[in-house]
Amino acid sequence: MVNAIVPHLNVRWLGTLDYDQSLILQRSLIRSPMDYLLLLEHPPVYTFGLRYRSKSILDNVIDAGKFNMVQQVVTDRGGDVTFHGPGQLVGYPILTVGEGKANVRQYVEKLQETLIAILARIGLKTARLLEGVPGVFVPSDNNSLRKIASVGIRATGSKVMHGFALNNTVDLTYFESINPCGISEYKMTSLSEIGLEIDLADLIDVTTETFVDVFERRKSYSSSFVVDKLSTYKNVDDAIYEIDAPADTVEETAKAATATAINKNIEIISSERPAVNIPLPSSFVRLAKSKSDLEKAKTFQSTKPGYLKKKLTYNQDVIALKSKLKQLNLVTVCQEASCPNLSECWSNSTATFMIAGDICTRACGFCDVKTGKPKPLDRDEPSKVAQAVNALNLNYAVVTSVDRDDLKDLGLSHWVGTINQIRVINPATKIEVLIPDFKGNTKIIDGLIEANPDILNHNMETVARLHKAVRPSASYGRSLSLLAQSQQSGLVTKSGFMVGLGETNEEVFELIKDLYATGVSIVTIGQYLRPSIKHLPVMRYVSLPDFALFKKYGESMGIPHIEASPFTRSSYHAEGSAAAYLYRSSVGGDS
Question: Is 317 domain-assigned?
Fold first, then answer.
């Protein structure tokens, strides 16, 4: 590369991510000043590049069930049709390479050199390139060549996106419906087909190390992920286990779990009672899998620092608001999530409405909202929320919801109805929505974006390494993609996360960088406080200087507004944060 300054390289393992979500994320990251290497797997998908030719789909198998049932996406990378799916490690470098064809050509050469070096490091030293044919090839038993890795990129200005796909344990029959990359002369193969068995986690480690060596990023890169052996967390239930045991027993049971020796049932021996078999909460199991040291966990009875003690006071304003909400049969996240700021916000006639019921279809390890089978939607709820906004004379309304994975549209129509009803009755009121991830369904997310809320908020909740422990049914990459999609649509985008779950300050900085790179304008950072014995433990109480450090770091990067304090929550000071952001945007700098 000829560029004088090499940007810091951020390596991210994103797990399984839909192709369209990864494309949205890449399009945001390529506009940021930072470089990335995204590593992930895709669900089965056929992608059609800029040089796609119809003859690359084979006539004799075009009606095969596997082809017709797989998602098909038209994309903007070079090349013809190819397949991506589970068991294939996909790498998307979003790199600064300099402008001009010579730099792009040199980049492709280095990318292919990286793939050959990866294969050599895991014991396959016969990989080679073919003149004029993209990708990497290996000899088969009869000395014919087979393709084991594909390459396809797109250059925009001085940066590139898309990248490579390395076949590890992928189902090769998916390639039988196509001429992969438009090449009919060479069949596809995989590491497993040629007898090389390598765990996904090990392959990711080798890929990362090789990439930073070949691209000379050893002194300027960071990674933020953990990959469990043999993929991730398929054998761990998402639901939190009910525990019928004394609190101290549960705490000691949880601390007995380690990242290398985890049992769902751990026998507890006590001199005061017979041996009992207590199921360890799955949230604790996931936390141990994330390489957290449970010995550092605070017990539920741990004494909090003075700055984390806050009294709830119920004055007349609080009582009046509670009465109005009860009269309209409305739910607030303030009550359902046991928010410590309830009395402060309610005293100022501020509340966050929670629509679609009070029972969530997911069981996040930190959340105090009930989990189970939700009740049918209240079709009058959008109108009731609008009436409440009017009755409270709100200039700024915040609406959130439980996850409704049970609904065909995941709750979209209910969301749109609520936004529209608020606008009809309260045309001057600003609307902030704090939305779930809608399973990453980009069409549903587009539907909500079209309702045009003033601010779209979606929480990351925690750093990349802890994501599966904290949000087992969600995805770090999926949430980043949603924020990127919102920002690309022109909406003011907001996100928040908790600290105190076992993350390091360096991991917090990595998350803040990712939020900046995806174009988030407002960020909230607060201390995690454990709602009950069944929830994830607090791993540390974050100091006030650290909160100030997070705020300074994010704003120095260019995030317009950050709220960071022990009691900061997603909707805390929401109206003030929006006003501060809008002011800074209008003057083009600090307020």
Answer: yes
